[in-house]
Model the fold of this input.
Amino acid sequence: MKLIIAIIHDEDAHPLMDALSAAGYMCTKLASTGGLLRNGSTTIFLGIDADKVEDAISIIKKHCQTQKQMSIITPPSISVLESVITYPIEVTIGGATVFVLDIDQYLKL
Done:
């Protein structure tokens, strides 16, 4: 058995979960917040047989594409005056960070 943990963009969560469900996979969704932009993200947990990992990852790849977006950030600053200065930067959003872990037991109680 394997545990797939996929951290994805919030907007990709429902289409991904629908696709996983249509393929016969059950998953658990948790809201999370991440990184530089502090945008909402979703963490998906998926317990799966080892021989189905590649199929599940291909579904994740299909539904979690990256894209470029302009964003405004406030850099860490030393003075109060500097804290009100913001900078536009181009960032890549979306995609997925995927972890595949071995698990000893998988129980549904």
Summary: The first strand starts at residue 2 and ends at 9.
